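retry 2 of 3: previous attempt timed out while embedding adenosine-5'-diphosphate. Reduced batch size to 1 and resubmitted. Inputs unchanged:
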Amino acid sequence: NSLKDKDLVHLKELGAGNYGSVLKVFHVPLQKTMARKIVSIDSKLTTQTQIIRELRIMHECRSPHIVEFYGAYLRSNNTVVLCMEYCNCGSVDKLANMLSDKAFPLSVLKVLLFSILSGLYYLYDTHKIIHRDIKPSNVLMTHRGEFKLCDFGVSRELTNSVALADTFVGTSTYMSPERIQGNMYSIKSDVWSTGLMLYELASGLSPWSDPEAGHLTGIRSSKVIGPEGILDLLQRIVNEQSPSLLNKEDQFTKKIFDSDMCRFIDKCLVKDEEHRLSPQDLLQDPFLESVAIGTFDKEVKCWAKLIRKQLKEDN
Ligand code: ADP
Ligand code: MG
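retry 2 succeeded.
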C-alpha cells in the first residue's frame, strides 16, 4: 500500500501515550478517517525485514474484535507511522472516566469481556500472537458499541511497551506474577491482565489501591504511582493473595457484586499460570453464556448511543 504523510490531514489529538501521541487523521484520497500512531524503533535491536514481517501479520488480522490495520510507512528517523481504524467512542479507560461515579452495566462488561477473549483467541489461534499489553487504553469502542483490541505485541519494538517502564508512568500495573518474575510469557498472562481490568471496571477500584483512599486511587483517578511505589507494588502482586470481589459491596450501588462475575474474575486472577484458564476455556464460562448469540447487543448499542451523546456534549 502507499500511505504517506502528505495524504493525511490532522484532525485532532486522541491521546498521548508514554511514547508519543495518537492523532485522528483524514486520508484524503481514500476519504477515510483513521487513527495515526507514531512508534519509534530501535535501529540496533531490529532489522527492517523483521519489522516488515510483523507489519504483514498486522495487515492479515481480520476479526470483529481486532482494530483494523490500514498500513504503515517508515520515516527516516527510526520511526514507523501506523494507520488504523478510528474508533469513535475511544478507549475503555476514557469511558470509565466519563462514568465517574457510575458502574459499567453488567451487560456492557459481558460484551467487553467476550470481545477481549475472542480477540485474544483469534490472535493466538490464527496468527500465533500474544497480545502482551491488555489494559483499558488498548480496548477501543466503536460507535456501534463493539469492543476491539489494539496495540498488540506483534513485536516488542513496534508496540513500544516496555512493561516495566510503562508502570513507572502509569497508574497501575496489569502485569501477571509470572511476567514480573521474568518467567515464560504465555497467552494466560493476558488472561491475568483481562481479569485485573474487569476488576477495575466493575468496581471502580484498582485492586492494588489503598482501601483507605477509596475509589480515588482506581482507574478513574489521575493519581500516579511514583517509582518508589512500583517495586513495592510488583512485590505485592507476586507475594500477596489475588484480589477478589466475591461477597464485596459495590461502592456505587451498595449491592453485593454479581457472584458469577466475581467467580469469573477469580478464574482470571489465579496466580499459578498453569492453573489459570485460557481465553478459549473462559469463553465457555457461565458468566458469558448467551453473549455469543447477541442477547446483550441491543442494550450495549443503546449504551454506546448514550456515550456518544455525552462525548458530543463534552466537545
Ligand atoms: P496508551 O494505550 O498507553 O494510552 P497510546 O499511544 O497507545 O497510549 O494511545 C493513546 C490514546 O489514544 C489511547 O489512550 C486511546 O484513548 C487513543 N487511541 C489510540 N488508538 C485509537 C484509535 N484507533 N481510535 C481512537 N482512539 C485511539
Ligand atoms: Mg495503546
